[in-house]
UniProtKB/TrEMBL annotation:
Probable chloride channel. Keywords: Cell membrane, Chloride, Chloride channel, Glycoprotein, Ion channel, Ion transport, Membrane, Transmembrane, Transmembrane helix, Transport. Belongs to the tweety family. It is found in: Cell membrane. The gene is TTYH2L_3. This is Protein tweety homolog. It comes from the Eukaryota. It comes from Characodon lateralis. It is a multi-pass membrane protein.
Length: 105
């Protein structure tokens, strides 16, 4: 932890070093805000597609493009959320058991 002082906050270092159920992900709040914002924007675009396109048919292409971008952003958010979870990182960093020693003939 002393090597990261002044570079990464202590709560982030602690989260990734000790990774247990009692520690909350320090990135959870901004990830949740981003998810809620995406959902709100998706609802707004859906409403525009339903009610504005009949009045402004040329807007449909742009609205569908925005909808696609929001869907892609949501998929990226899910990937980012998984990558930031300490359990995934600790699984990669943990030494794997050597099963060759337990095999008996």
């Amino acid at each position: 932890m002393s090597q990261t002082k002044g570079i990464i906050t202590a709560d982030i270092v602690h989260y990734y070093l000790y990774c247990n159920q009692t520690l909350s992900n320090p990135f959870q709040q901004p990830l949740t805000i981003f998810q809620r914002s995406l959902t709100t924007m998706q609802i707004q675009i859906q409403g525009l597609l339903q009610f504005a396109v009949p009045l402004f048919p040329t807007a449909e292409r742009d609205l569908l493009g925005i909808q696609h971008l929001l869907n892609s952003s949501e998929a990226s958010l899910h990937q980012l959320t998984a990558l930031l979870d300490c359990r995934g990182l600790n699984k990669v960093c943990s030494p794997q058991p050597n099963w060759n020693h337990s095999i008996t003939k």
